[in-house]
Design brief:
The chain is α+β, with helices and mostly antiparallel strands. It has 17 helices and nine strands.
């Protein structure tokens, strides 16, 4: 399932519609050349009859179970059939959820049935992730075979495939989106950091984005350790790629105005940069319309300053309270005494991830951790 930071925007409700008998037929047509006795028509019929009322994860499980019942009883033999049916590797970072989505049940197959054969299964996940993604399938192996799995993960960091290197960092995230949190790594992030450190200067942005997301996960449970790791990375590998990883990986702390995080990205957390003249327009808008937020950012010091500017929308919750959500606005370099006006257009169209409630909302802006007062606006029914 897609991770919002890394994958195309596809929700459960839209993705689930793909997992029907048509998906079963796609898989069967790939399996038949390897295993001519595979019951393709029975598989398609069984899936179509079962998935109607089911949501995404249960649909994928139905497909995985249907595959299992039609492959050799021996798991190593069964997974070998699947690996030989996978098809060509993806040439770039796109396609894991657009052109290769139908392989999700294959990854689920390994996740469900392979725990008694960890070496064979981890090799299969290597092959699958070159065509699709396997970061979710690796989670049970971390829980049941952590030492063995981490040994393999470290080998994956040296893979020639950027898909496999990304699997190394993504699969061990403490707070992997749409997956259960891995509590041992939330309590002790050192095994994760040992892997991420090997990938901070990876040539693939696809991999580096995953590394940054892993650091961001760690910052939520162990902020001091995330900061010390980021500082060490910058000292050991002072490249533009590493600086990008640190800046993106500390984004939650930066948005929170953490002084240590701001200092690491060269945004001095002091009052030399101020935000003035914050406005929102219109002051009353309907659900589906767009709000414009504007603010003036000024360097009041006699030295050149970089400003990391974020904005916060304080959404009205079901209980009537305001719930802040911070978003990136811009990074700007300001000469002594200079000022710049920044604007941001924010859509208030309905999305699956957030329920919009009519009533008073608010916005605020912060630069280098210095926050403005909130400015109120009203959201009305469409």
């Amino acid at each position: 399932m897609p991770e919002s930071e890394n994958e195309p925007s596809m929700t459960d409700s839209t993705l689930k519609r793909h997992f029907t008998g048509d998906c079963a037929r796609e898989l069967a047509e790939r399996i038949l050349p390897v295993l001519p006795s595979f019951d393709a028509e029975g598989f398609v019929r069984e899936v179509d009859e079962a998935v109607g009322p089911l949501e995404l994860k249960d649909r994928v499980r139905v497909l995985a179970e249907g595959i299992r019942s039609r492959l050799p009883e021996s798991y190593p033999e069964a997974v070998d059939v699947l690996v030989r049916s996978l098809g060509p590797e993806l040439p770039d970072a796109e396609g894991t959820m657009s052109s290769a989505w139908f392989l999700m049940p294959v990854a689920r197959f390994v996740e469900i049935y392979g725990l008694q054969h960890p070496e064979t299964s981890l090799a299969a996940l290597d092959a699958i992730t070159r065509r699709h993604t396997a970061e979710y399938a690796i989670r049970p192996y971390l829980a049941g075979h952590q030492e063995l799995t981490l040994q393999q993960v470290h080998r994956w960091t040296q893979s020639e495939s950027f898909h496999v290197r990304r699997l190394a960092s993504e699969g061990i995230r403490p707070r992997l989106s749409w997956a259960s949190h891995h509590r041992p790594f939330k309590a002790d992030p050192e095994p994760v950091l040992a892997v991420l450190t090997e990938l901070i200067d990876d040539p693939s942005l696809y991999v580096r984005r995953s590394v940054a997301n892993g650091l961001n996960d760690i910052s939520k449970d162990n902020p001091a350790r995330a900061l010390s790791a980021a500082k060490q990375w910058l000292e050991q590998s002072p490249t533009d790629r590493t600086r990008w990883v640190v800046r993106h990986g500390l984004r939650s702390l930066i948005k929170a105005g953490d002084a240590g995080a701001l200092a690491l990205v060269d945004a001095t957390p002091d009052r030399s940069v101020v935000v003035e003249a914050l406005t929102v327009s219109p002051e009353v808008l309907r659900i589906g319309e767009t709000l414009t937020i504007a603010a003036e950012v000024r360097n009041v010091s006699d030295e050149r300053r970089e400003a990391v500017v974020d904005y916060t929308v304080h959404f009205l919750g079901a209980d009537g309270s305001l719930r802040p959500k911070v978003f990136k606005l811009k990074r700007v370099m300001l000469e002594p005494g200079a000022r710049v006006t920044l604007t941001k257009r924010r859509s208030f169209r309905p999305v699956n991830a957030r329920t919009l409630y009519p009533g008073p909302h608010a916005a605020s802006v912060q630069a280098n951790g210095q926050r403005t007062e909130q400015v109120t606006f009203v959201l009305e029914e469409a």
